[in-house]
Amino acid sequence: MIEMTLLMIEKSFLLIGIGLIFISMIQYGKRSQDWKGLATIFYKRVEMSISEFKYYKLGVSLVVFAVVLRILFLTLWP
After folding, report:
1. Would you say 24 and 73 are in contact if contact means Cβ atoms under 8 Å apart?
2. What is the reported pTM?
3. What does the DSSP 8-state code read for residue 78?
4. Which of 5, 10, 31, 43 lies 20 to 30 angstroms, CA to CA, from 71?
5. Helices 50-76, 2-32: inter-axial angle, 10-degree rounding
6. What is the DSSP string of 11-71?
């Protein structure tokens, strides 16, 4: 029971995090009209607005939290 719940929470955090990252990328692309710059968001500094940065940061933190949950899940229930 708890394994299934943790698995569902992990998957939902991962999907929501990826969705928030995509939302921030789409907002940046619409605002700046620099659709080629979307690839540089991950390794270069780009000028993001406050709302875009909030969505991006929340999405990345949810993805990292999902990875930590996965590691915890695999450690406790091999």
Report:
1. no
2. 0.85
3. -
4. 43
5. 160
6. HHHHHHHHHHHHHHHHHHHHHH--GGGGGGTTTS-----HHHHHHHHHHHHHHHHHHHHHH
